[in-house]
Predict the structure.
Amino acid sequence: MPEPQLSVRSAKARTLAHRLARGEHRSIAAVVERALEAYQQREAGREPAAAFYERLARDCGCDIDLEAIVRESRVPHTGPDL
């Protein structure tokens, strides 16, 4: 049974994968697998933004309306002096 194939529609990704494979004397599949594994390891430790903000609101005990703070201190620009 043949191995599953990954299809990439990005010409830039294809060109880069071919260039890296030639430079490292590896197969394109090996280059793509290593890149995806590195990406997964790098991103695995990150907390999703929604969870971060939920935890921040829970731990700080107060909810700040950033929009209101910006609105209060906003001063319209009078334009350039001519």
In short: The helical segments are 11-24, 28-44, 49-60, 66-73. The chain has a mean pLDDT of 84. The chain has one domain: 11-73. Residues 6 and 29 are 8 Å apart (CA to CA).
